[in-house]
Amino acid sequence: GPSRGHKHFLHIDDWSGDELREVLRRAQEVKSNIKAGDRSFQPFKGKSMSMIFTKQSMRTRVSFETGFHLLGGHAVYLAPDDISIGKREATKDVARVLCRYNDILMARLYGHDDLIELAEHSAVPVVNGLTDYNHPCQIMADALTMIEECGSFEGKKLVYVGDGNNMVHSWLRIAAALPFEFVCVCPEGYDPDPETVKHAQDAGLSSITIARDPMEAVKGADVIYSDVWASMGQKEEALERERAFQGYQVNDAMMAQAGPNTKFMHCLPAERGREVTNSVMESENSIVFPQAENRMHAQNAIMLHCLGC
Ligand code: CP
Ligand code: NVA
After folding, report:
1. Known catalytic residue: 267?
2. Whole-angstrom Cα distance, residue 39 to residue 105?
3. Given pLDDT bands bounded at 50, 70 and 90, which one contains residue 3?
4. Are 49 and 64 in contact, with CB atoms under 8 Å apart?
5. Separation between Cα atoms, residue 2 and residue 202, nearest integer Å
6. DSSP label at residue 187
7. What's the CA-to-centroid distance between 59 and ligand 1, angstroms?
8. How distant, in Å, are the alpha carbons of 110, 138, 145, 219 from that of 252?
9. Does the reported pTM lie above 0.80?
10. Atom of ligand 2 nearest to the CA of 267
11. What's the pLDDT tens digit per position in 205-228?
12. Does the CB atom of residue 166 touch ligand 2 within 6 A?
């Protein structure tokens, strides 16, 4: 694993609640400098990062590459066909080579075990840019967005409507480290991983509910959150899933049921007309674009923490 003072970021609760609060505070501080046009903070000067992708991306690729550059570093984008991790070359060999060039690695992969293997064999920190299991950078950006838009993250009620997927696993993992109210409302057969639910419940910090009735679950929510019904790697199940998720579309009626101040969030990309209507995406209460912007600021703070800067 990474040498002393260096940390991987593979799951949110790899870090303690206090560390996460500090990372979120740092994100706000570094964000306000960047937004004010101040480019004097260059902690990554002379540092480099490889970014390994086996899946598509807009936000993750551009926000990591731009954020690392804004803080003085150089990021190298490796598209799915460039190194063909695990195919052209064993994952553990990729790890052992890249960590001799780079100060930090970021990876977006299918199998979560492949990410764990990459981290096990890397002498520099590895940051999770999404796997089939989770997406911790997204949920840190989301917590930052709730601090800005709802006044706090802790204590708020977030209702996730849709598939019990990688996004839900990261919501459950943050619930094990910081206290809030999390409801995942999903159809039978699309529940999140039961061990991850138990792990979050056993931590005893947050209220965690798996529910089936969206119109009931969203009442009093500070945030309604949705994601695609068919994730990357599941697109051939799209039709079957569309049938299973009838009644789970976030529309004006669902937003009205939740309350006048309820915010709408979505990790993006969104399929308008499926999991969310165009009307909700474009509404006053939709905060999906500030949320997307915060990917960069949350990740900058994550990388600062990984590198001990
Ligand atoms: N939300 C998110 O991770 O977007 P990309 O797939 O475009 O990186
Ligand atoms: N659940 C989605 C998130 C995309 C950012 C997927 O894995 O495709």
Report:
1. yes
2. 23
3. low
4. yes
5. 29
6. -
7. 5
8. 34, 25, 22, 14
9. yes
10. 5
11. 999 999 999 999 999 999 999 999
12. yes
